[in-house]
Amino acid sequence: MSYTTTPDIVSYGLGRQFGDQLAADPFEGLNAEAMAQGLMDALQGKASPIADEQFRQAFQEINDMMQAKEAERAEAAAAEGEAFLTENAKKDNIVVTESGLQYEILVEGEGDKPSAESVVSTHYHGMLVDGSVFDSSVERGQPAEFPVNRVIPGWTEALQMMPKGSKWRLYIPQDLAYGPQGSGGKIPPYSALIFDVELLDIVS
Question: Which residues span the domain enclosing 88?
């Protein structure tokens, strides 16, 4: 089916946006036909065949189920990250700091080191421990500028140890990264992270 008029395009777009949101985090047993019928009934002003109390009970049931599922995913991510970092720390070229941050020097710079108040220019490549890339200034071809004390704790700690011109690989425990919140849908809660970070310049 094709949509050519402006109202048709916007109508489809609204449905698509809602569908994309649900598809990104569906609950078990999602019934697309029932959802579409509910939308049609509401737009046509029809009375709901389901009582308010039934709605409340059903929504609470699904919410509880999704929270339990999220807790399982978080527990798995935390265990995976911890196991990875434990094995990684055994490698000869890995330095482990008191906080638990791990790093590997790929290129040793000879310039000044930034302070927590400095603004720096960096190139970076961010990965989960399974190797999947979630963000990369390298792939965008555009360095990132930011204050050292306005990023995740693992970055703030590492950058202050890095001479300008250095390139390090950081292995960051979840508590020095995004912790229980995760970030942007691409970083699950409790995820350990890997970053290749190149300190290009200390801007100020």
Answer: 71-202
User: Is 18 known to be catalytic?
Assistant: no
Q: Tell me the pLDDT tens digit for each residue of 143-159.
A: 999 999 999 999 999 99
Q: What is the pTM of this model?
A: 0.73
Whose CA is closest to 135, among 70, 169, 183, 170? 183
Residue (of 180, 175, 183, 178) closest to 70 by Cα position: 180
Catalytic choice (94, 134, 146, 175):
134
Tell me, yes or no, whether 152 lies in a domain: yes
Pick the catalytic residue: 84, 124, 171, 190? 124
Active site residue 135: yes
Note if 55 is an active site residue. Answer: no
Tell me the β-bridge partners of 197. Answer: 124, 168
Is 2 part of any domain? no
Annotation says 152 is catalytic: yes
The string of pLDDT tens digits covering residues 9-49 is 999 999 999 999 888 878 888 898 999 999 999 999 999 99
Catalytic pick among 84, 103, 135, 202: 135
